[in-house]
Amino acid sequence: MPPRDETMVRFLDLRRQYESIQGDVDAAIRAVLADTAFVSGPHVRRFEEEFAAYQRVAHCVAMANGTDAIEIALEALDLPPGSEVIVPANSFIASSEAVTRSGLRVVFADCDPATYTLSPADVERRITPSTSAIMAVHLYGHPCDMDALLALAARHGLRVIEDCAQAHGAEYKGRRVGGIGDLATFSFYPGKNLGAYGDAGAVTTNDAALAKRCRMIANHGRVAKYDHEFEGRNSRMDGLQGAILSAKLPHLDGWLDTRIALADEYRRVLGDADLVLPAAEPWARHVYHLFVVRTPERDALQRWLGEQGVETGIHYPIALPKLKAYEYLGQAAEPMFANGADSQLLSLPIGEHLEPGDLAAVARAVEGFFAHAAA
Predict the structure, then answer these.
(1) Number of H helices, E strands in the chain
(2) 144 sits in which H/E element
(3) What is the 3-state composition of the chain as percent helix, strand, coil, each rounded to the nearest 5?
(4) Backbone conformation region of residue 103, classed left if phi is above 0, alpha if psi is from -120 to 50, else beta
(5) 171-172 and 131-137 as β-strands: parallel, antiparallel, unpaired?
(6) pTM higher than 0.90 for the full model?
(7) Which residues contact 27 (CB under 8 A, 6 or more apart)?
(8) Biggest alpha carbon distance in the chain?
């Protein structure tokens, strides 16, 4: 593996990941080319079986991308038109736009300040007779409090969709996410903990009827060629992406173990810094798609770290209720934690691409910022 630029601690380095498993990936690509199995096909079916087994769920339906997966999951549930779906106020817009594009109404609920996942208490106060579903986004790799959300759903007759786009391999009380709610959705965007080399997604479920419905929706409403029971859409995973994901899947747990170890080390080296570090509930396997810290000095700290050669990210700079797209909901001014925390969140580098000494370099840079600010 060639040396990297030693002046930079990179936020993400997919090239280094590829070089570490190049033989596996190249062989997978050659197999697809040899089979000319470019759309769906045996390599995608193999990945569906392997990923279902990995997530410990009965069914996996591969799709073109994670946003399609959410829309198709919502359609498969056949929710009443115009009904309300409760979505966390801090997430990527895919979680909410899929709701409105499905003819449903978004209602934003606040997050827990420690885990940044959906607050069951705030969800409960937003349930109305028009509510039909709850979207539990396992944000940053930390599972939602699913028992509390499922209890609310049972009490009010609601469906539960898990958005697992950042939570491949995460666990809630020993159960892998993706099979706890009615349906779950995954994104395999390249930067995810399990990422394809293009767009790809999936729905997982333990309900055979829902799995069949999702598969039909994603394939023009059919189960056999030219036999269309209803109008669907085209959201099939590419064969190349299925084969690449199969090649990468055996490495995933090792990558997640590295992320968990790095998060523990971050807590050690940043324990004295004036930052709010991410929490991990004792019942959770937090897989740290992102390691998000919080400080009122976020923008200045990000600039300083960049000057010190540390790349960072912001996830997400504008809480969903404050986006222009959702002005009509009138939730931007609500005193939600998410509406105030968006200006304080900073994602530090984490992942298997990091080298010994990188976290110490990040810690020195952080300490230098606060020392300079104090002076």
Answers:
(1) 12, 14
(2) none
(3) 40, 20, 40
(4) left
(5) unpaired
(6) yes
(7) 247
(8) 73
272 has a pLDDT exceeding 80? yes
Look at residues 241, 339, 198, 181 and name the one whose alpha carbon lies nearest to residue 28. 241
Residue 2: partners with Cβ closer than 8 Å, 6 or more residues away = 19
- For tokens 């059919």, what's the residue? 222
Q: Where are any strands of DSSP class E within the chain?
A: 59-63, 84-88, 105-109, 131-137, 159-163, 171-172, 175-176, 183-187, 201-205, 222-224, 227-228, 284-285, 291-294, 345-348
Instruction: Give the pLDDT of residue 4.
Output: 46
Instruction: Give the torsion through C-alpha atoms of 322, 323, 325, 327, to 10 deg.
Output: 20
| Four-residue CA torsion sign, 222, 223, 226, 227 | negative
At 19, which helix (H) or strand (E)?
helix 14-20
Structure tokens at 185: 């959705």
Backbone dihedral angles phi then psi of residue 25, each to the nearest 5 degrees? -70, -45
For residue 61, the one-letter residue type is: V
CB burial readout 238-264, b (16+ within 10 A) else e: bbbbbbbbbbbbeebeebbebbbebbe
Cβ atoms of residues 65 and 165 within 8 Å: no
Q: What is the dihedral of CA 170, 173, 179, 180, to 10 degrees?
A: -120
Q: How far is CA 69 from CA 17, 162, 167, 318, 369, in A?
A: 26, 11, 15, 24, 42
- pLDDT, tens digit, for every residue of 117-141? 999 999 999 999 999 999 999 999 9
- For 284, the token pair is 């959770």
Other Cβ atoms closer than 10 A to 302: 19
Residues 6+ apart with CB under 8 A from 335: none
pLDDT digit string (tens) for 213-250? 999 999 999 877 888 999 999 999 999 999 999 999 99
Q: Which amino acid is at 296?
A: P
Among all chains, which residue has been given the structure tokens 């349906």?
A: 183
Sign of CA dihedral 157, 214, 46, 351: negative
